[in-house]
Amino acid sequence: MATKHSRAAARLMISPAVLLLLGWMIVPLAMTLYFSFLRYNLLMPGMEEWTGFLNYQYFLTDPAFIASLINTLLLVGGVLIITIIGGILLALLLDQPFFGQGIVRILVIAPFFVMPTVSALVWKNMFLNPVNGLFAHVAHFFGLPAYDFLAQAPLASIIGIVAWQWLPFATLILLTALQSLDQEQLEAAEMDGASPVSRFFHIMLPHLARAITVVVLIQTIFLLSIFAEILVTTNGGPGVASTNLTYLIYVQSLLQFDVGGGSAGGVVAIILANIVAIFLMRMIGKNLEA
Amino acid sequence: MARAVSKPRKLVFTLVAWIIGLAIFFPILWIFILSFKSEGNAIAAPFHVLTSAFTLESYHTVFERSNYLRYFMNSVILSVGSTLLGLIIAVPAAWAMAFVPGRHTKDVLLWMLSTKMLPPVGVLVPIYLIFRDMGLLDSRIGLVFVLTMINLPIIIWMLYTYFREIPGEILEAARMDGAGLKEEVLYVLTPMAIPGIASTVLLNIILAWNEAFWTLNLTAAKAAPLTQFIASYSSPEGLFYAKLSAASIMAIAPILIMGWFSQKQLVRGLTFGAVK
So what's the ipTM on this one? Predict the structure, then answer.
């Protein structure tokens, strides 16, 4: 049983972590909130003045905001659909007995370890480039004209690149969950004459539901903040065709030096991320009790 | 029990799985091949690429002309430094929460996790300005601190889930055998905690190595790690596929190898123990 003495020691051991995280969270957050109510441009130092909700009004009514919000949703949604469906199929496949399971598993998870700037640049140049890219070569081989992916379909191309990076994550987690499934239950269902399809929908999918939720929530947190992939492939363009919320705020604050406007955008991004976070925290919290 | 599987069925699955596995791995395989070609051959049609001569020319060029080693060392310093600093802060905290849980332990853990959900872009401006005013822009110390803070919740969580699995009875048994607190920590707890700490270190180095929001925004030249080095190739200057491939391979190889060893821990670390 923990004594009074050990409780005090425990508190002392936890406090550095708590204080640091608290500072890391509160200080910048308070500053962002404060800046968001100022007219504050780094190019005009000393001209800061209180403007109330003007920054929010500008940010939220900017056509680029609506466009980037839609792009953010498409990016997150598109990657989620591809990685969840692909991940389930891959997990089912990798769960089957076949020769070289370990090696194939290693091949499948590899993209997750590739740093974002590398995967984005490699896809941009070696595959999607309309002149020298591999896809262009393949198109020429079949007598088709090359397609300029990043100019014609920038957002879809980025969705593809990001999905390639995150498919291993979904696969790995769904595979782990699948392997904890009670085999006897499956065999019993099989003996009772359940078809593979009904076994999948009535036994496997319900068992995977929790893991799928976890994958959706965690990926959403990361996908809302996709940045490097956009920076090195399209710079958010053409126009704002592949600009997401993160990139828009980056442009506004660090390229246009509009601290006030960028901060207002940051507050909006925080609110959006929190909506997702609340669901995720509830799930993890429930699991902590189990 | 493993079910008996018919041979043809197994062969079909083997074929399908290998085709899909290789397809997913293909981009990495392709740059690996391109990195051993001359620039002229690297942009040729695929068939020509495969049959052309191997050369180490691109690796030479990347090494000699681009300060690759400095970027590499920065990546090592940032990822290892932030991991060690994180451990120093996290081990006591996770230890206390796992072995002396109080009424609020769960809330503290969840709150720590919630700091991870803060979108980085939401605090980009203040961090940038604070760094500018403190002269920390493009400095390794500043970046080590940022990387430590963004990964600290994950480190604490992972350590916590590992520590919690150490059975309390063992401690009691040691105490009955006359072990003092020092012996208890040194000879009983530490050996049992080391595997958990090792996987935490591994995963955290991977995450820090690949971090590409703060490293791109807060560094320019001096403290820039490999993420920044590769990003500098985004402005096309003539033919550079082979060099980009060689640089990419050198940037991802160490982490790829570490990642393959830590795939099991990855699931646990990245789902905060929600899926094991």
Answer: 0.87
